[in-house]
Amino acid sequence: MALPQTQTTDELVTTITQMIAAQDLTSLTHVLSPVTPTDLVPVFERLSRKQRAVIYRLLAKDRAADVFELLDPPLQSDLLHGLQDAEVSQLFADLDHDDRLWLLDEVPAALATRLLRGLPEQERVLTSALLGYPQGSAGRRMSLEYVSTRESFTVAETMDRVRTRLDDAETIYTIPVLDDSRHVVGVVSLRGLLGAAGETLISALMSPAHTAAAEDDAELAARRCADLQLLAMPIVDREQRLLGMLTIDDAIRILEHEESEDAARQGGTEPLRRPYLSTPVGSLVRSRVVWLLVLAVGATLTVQVLSVFEATIEQVTVLALFVPLLIGTGGNTGNQAATTVTRALALGDVQSRDFIRVLTRELRTGGMLGLLLGTLGFAIAAIAYTPQIGLVIGLTLLCVCTLAAAVGGCMPLLARAVKVDPAVFSNPFISTFVDASGLIIYFLIARSVLGL
């Protein structure tokens, strides 16, 4: 049953807040009873840590476990801090292996150690095995709960294996086919099994397998899984032996996580890693202040440039009026190029080796944009002031747009080449660089055209 039509999520949050304040837990239990786990997730995201712990304890055990699995890892971490050790251990043990890794990345090291100790021995061994892979690798995000078959097996034998693993396997729709040494030699789909005769050999049904190495970057493996429209991708070791499966839901989760980080860093902040309304104000400040300090220091370059050309501005004061227009246009042009190329890198459309091709394309693109904007700027400035001022504005827009597009397009490629997140080199730094260099170009052109 979904939320009552007469009560929205915001209204439910208000009701819960009022009942907790009044300590009317009996009525609160009745309010929560018809709400599905899926509908409770946005409610949890809007409540404080203490309020989340209160309503979580009021949920029935099965519903509480369902809600916990649907929450983001940072919110799961918050809940664990507010629950007793026995409850924490049970919740952690009930998670899938790959979901445990997401949570362990969020909790403090001391709590992570305590959680691992509370697992049954077999679960602890499997989870520790995943922790052995590098942070951000495909091996750390793979599932160990899968069904495999052999190329010498029949369809009937494989279907028996599927039925015995229905309750614990995370995916059964894509089944890796192994040889006697556990090398992945192909895959077979559940659809193919259901449509074949029981005595048919798997070797006759299997298709080539697309695999990823456990040490591969998780984002690249997830991107490949999504691009190929696979329901699951085998994760293998260096000898092509099967280690686990990367499922499409985990691939999408990885891509959403990475794109959230890129979007945050392109805007000059650190990623929050949790829903906005559940993020403490102190965390919001910390996510922004470092970047603001860095950009403030970078902005002093612009001030220095203005001070160097102070005499030029005093001779022709009208030049100062166009400074915001020129640096704003240059920054926007660079940001557009950087965003486009960063996205192309994420999709695998370009690589660091395409530097010259990208530079050439962005020089042409920036030049054409600069020509269009420069012509418009020349016409407006010439009518409003003088043709000489119009020429200065037009030439500056042409040069600034060309430079900004080239810099914006190449910065993400340089970042990828030196193993740095391309988003870090994106909008904030490009804007600061283009502001300073654009002003230098502007005043040099003004001096030349106006004879200053």
UniProtKB/TrEMBL annotation:
CDD domains, A to Z: CBS_pair_Mg_transporter
Cellular localization per UniProt: Cell membrane; Membrane
Topology class, membrane: Multi-pass membrane protein
Transmembrane segments: 289-309, 366-385, 391-415, 427-445
Pfam families: CBS (PF00571), MgtE (PF01769), MgtE_N (PF03448)
All residue ranges annotated as the CBS domain in the record: 142-203, 205-261
Main subcellular location of this protein, as a coarse class: membrane
Family annotation (PROSITE patterns): CBS
Cross-referenced InterPro entries: CBS_dom (IPR000644), CBS_dom_sf (IPR046342), Mg_transptr_MgtE_intracell_dom (IPR006668), MgtE_N_sf (IPR038076), MgtE_transporter (IPR006669), SLC41_membr_dom (IPR006667), SLC41_membr_dom_sf (IPR036739)
Record keywords: CBS domain, Cell membrane, Magnesium, Membrane, Metal-binding, Transmembrane, Transmembrane helix, Transport
Function (record text): Acts as a magnesium transporter.
Family membership: Belongs to the SLC41A transporter family.
Subunit structure: Homodimer.
Name recorded for this polypeptide: Magnesium transporter MgtE
Origin species: Leucobacter chromiireducens subsp. solipictus
Lineage: Bacteria, Bacillati, Actinomycetota, Actinomycetes, Micrococcales
Gene from which this protein is expressed: mgtE
